[in-house]
Design goal:
single chain, seven-stranded mixed β-sheet, alpha+beta, 14 strands, 6 helices
């Protein structure tokens, strides 16, 4: 029988934990005298709690901090299996589980220990803490220059022939289309703005702008609604591309078009932008009492 005294859990008023969570920590760090809870990173995607803790020996020697995740043992075991099969051999030293899950005595709750990136040398913040106080340019730099180059090649892009990560390609489908266009008859060139996927950086079309669309690929066709969804000509190829989706509606004889073909010039008026559609969705979701123009 092990008579070793359970480690004492040092916690702050800002990070309350219940008795069950405390027992999990004591089980995970049973060889130490104390466990200091230093920070909480919010809930994990599974609903578990994520804490940064520092184990301390009986003589007062503090070890480097670790990340622990605490929750129902079924979720913890699921994460352990996913880590073992998908992460352990592809992201070494980035996401490193130091031991198998530990179960609190006489309970169905457990925990898992992760080594911190950088071995605890640097102050670690969660991305959810970082992005509300960062500029858009800084967020893009962190994602494109730090996170994606390190993780993508050996993880989510490992099965793609071209492993370059394209922000537009991989996230664009989660957002509304960039422009909604109402089809019109051809207009004089002097009255329209030409929009091409090869000159996407020059596009600043506002609602009401008269435009000519050219060089786009048809990626979706809805004959019932008289709509075409257009994108970059490389959209159907198995490689990253500079995605820029446009939906044009009010077309007659839609059956004359074919998915996968490049359009002849089409004419129309901008009725919505991605920004205006996101604002409209936010208003419907949050209600009239939320000021969307506030910082």
């Amino acid at each position: 029988m092990n008579s070793r005294k359970a480690p004492r859990i040092q916690r702050t008023s800002k990070i309350p934990i219940n008795t069950l969570e405390e027992r999990v920590l004591q089980s995970m760090f049973s060889e130490y005298d104390r466990v200091a809870i230093e920070a909480e990173f919010g809930t994990g995607y599974s609903g578990c709690r994520v804490l940064r803790v520092r184990p301390i020996e009986s003589g007062g020697a503090a070890h480097r901090p670790e990340l622990v995740k605490i929750g129902p043992i079924a979720l913890i075991n699921e994460e352990w299996r996913a880590y073992d099969s998908l992460v352990r051999t592809t992201l070494p030293r980035i996401a490193w589980v130091t031991s198998a899950p530990m179960l609190a005595p006489d309970s169905d709750w457990g925990g898992i220990r992760y080594e911190l990136v950088g071995a605890g040398i640097f102050e670690v913040h969660s991305f959810s803490q970082y992005y509300p106080q960062a500029d858009t340019e800084d967020i893009l730099w962190v994602l494109q220059k730090r996170l994606f180059p390190v993780m993508s090649r050996s993880w989510w892009l490992a099965n793609r022939p071209d492993s370059a990560f394209q922000f537009q390609t991989d996230y664009d489908h989660l957002l509304p289309v960039n422009l909604m266009i109402s089809a019109t008859e051809p207009l004089p060139d002097s009255l329209v703005q030409v929009i091409s996927p090869f000159k996407r950086s020059e596009v600043e079309a506002n609602i009401g702008a008269k435009v000519t669309l050219q060089d786009f690929l048809i990626v979706e066709l809805d004959a019932e609604k008289g709509q075409l969804t257009l994108n970059h000509p490389e959209a159907l190829e198995d490689r990253p591309f500079d995605s820029f989706r446009i939906r044009i509606e009010g077309l007659s004889e839609v059956d004359r078009f074919r998915e996968g073909s490049v359009i002849e010039p089409l004419y129309g008026v901008v009725t919505d932008t991605r920004h205006s559609m996101l604002l409209d969705q936010s208003r419907k979701t949050l209600g009239e009492y939320v000021n969307l123009s506030a910082k």
